[in-house]
Amino acid sequence: MSETIIVIPCYNEAERLSVEQFKTFCDRHADINFLFVNDGSEDRTLEILQELAQINPDRFSALDLQPNRGKAEAVRAGVLAAFDRSPVYIGYWDADLATPLQEIPNFIDLLARNPQYELLFGARVKLLGRSVQRSAARHYLGRIFATVASMVLSLAIYDTQCGAKLFRATPPLKALFAEPFITSWVFDVEIIARLIRSRHGQDMPQAESVICEVPLQEWNDIPGSKVKPYDFLKAMVEMMRIYWSYLRN
Predict the structure, then answer these.
(1) Which among 184, 157, 159 is positioned nearest to 98, based on CA atoms?
(2) Model's pTM, two decimal places?
């Protein structure tokens, strides 16, 4: 049984995927494995992932989705496949490693020391002593988005969209991934909305007490992002879909 499985969604990442960083990290952390999900890539991504899995099948595995289904479905498929292996923790991380792999052990340690937390969300907060490099445009659009997300969820959350998440591999959290997401860009917000809805009126810890945001030590705005400025408008439309589908009483 692997203690932790990290899902890495990949779409046309042949030029950006740092295979050596993954290999070096796994050499140093025996209880952390990676499940790469090829989301219908049109370049050599699948070939690279299969080669990586062949080199060390105990630590790396590749799941191929055809045709392209989008990041939300790639993450969902990877998470459900990870649950089948009965790990203690499951997470998902962006393939470009804007959040360095070295943050993963910090997340694991935080969950291990704090049994009240069920989900950890990385937060890109530019504080003294931390290296968070983000363009001004993405930062300010992110703050607007986060404000809307907080209003929709009625939850004081700072950063829903950072591509670094880790959670306990428990049946209640698996249930959050059981059905396809209705959104493609803001499925992270949809996960929270599903959590809120699933516990509404239940004698269970509520979202505000089981989610913990973790200020990252380092985050870098990597060139080649597939997110474009007009996607901000799509995200806002999807936020409204989340509200009407999950949270409107």
Answers:
(1) 159
(2) 0.94
